[in-house]
């Protein structure tokens, strides 16, 4: 998967990616019926972002994934992503003020939407999406 060329620089050399302050990701609505789900992402922030869809393992909550030394989490099991500015699917990142979208087919269950640009997950860019029957 491609990554944005304009990775944010650490704001603080002592704490690295983890000094980036709070970021967030909000799903509205937070629950949708199973089937084809179109995610429309609007980047209301000042940095480039992306949204990746991962299943949420039983007993785990959004935000609990292990963050590697590169400031990112594993994307194994990804069901799709919206990371192309003004476009569908995977791309180089969603620039500030732009929208992106992707359509995925989801079974009932719990999912995690997250941004996997370095440091963003640890800074709070994750949220749960529930898929109902
Ligand atoms: Cu982000």
Global Rg: 14 Å
Query: Strand tally, please?
Result: 7
How many domains? The number is 1
Distance between the termini: 30 Å
Largest sheet, described in full? 5 strands, mixed
Question: Could you say what the CATH topology is called?
Answer: Immunoglobulin-like
Bound molecules: copper (II) ion
Summarize the topology.
Blueprint: E1 31-33, E2 35-42, E3 51-55, E4 80-82, E5 99-106, E6 109-114, E7 126-132
Bound molecules: copper (II) ion (CU).
Copper (II) ion (CU) binds at residues 23, 49, 115, 117, 120, 125.
Describe the protein:
- This protein has 133 residues and is an all-beta fold.
- It has a single domain, classed as Immunoglobulin-like, CATH 2.60.40.
- It has strands spanning 31-33, 35-42, 51-55, 80-82, 99-106, 109-114, 126-132.
- The strands form 2 sheets. A 5-stranded mixed β-sheet has the order 1-7-6-3-4, with no helix packed on it.
- The termini are far apart.
- Copper (II) ion is lined by residues 23, 49, 115, 117, 120, 125.
- Copper (II) ion (CU) binds next to loops.
């Amino acid at each position: 998967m491609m990554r944005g060329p304009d990775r944010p620089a650490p704001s603080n050399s002592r704490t690295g990616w983890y000094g980036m302050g709070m970021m967030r990701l909000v799903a509205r609505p937070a629950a949708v019926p199973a089937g084809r789900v179109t995610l429309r992402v609007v980047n209301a922030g000042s940095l480039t972002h992306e949204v990746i869809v991962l299943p949420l393992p039983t007993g785990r909550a959004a935000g609990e994934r292990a963050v590697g030394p590169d400031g990112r989490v594993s994307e194994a099991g990804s069901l799709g992503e919206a990371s192309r500015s003004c476009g569908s699917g995977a791309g180089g990142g969603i620039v500030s003020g732009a929208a992106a979208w992707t359509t995925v087919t989801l079974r009932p269950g719990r999912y995690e939407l997250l941004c996997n640009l370095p440091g963003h997950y640890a800074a709070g860019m994750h949220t749960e999406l529930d898929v109902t029957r």
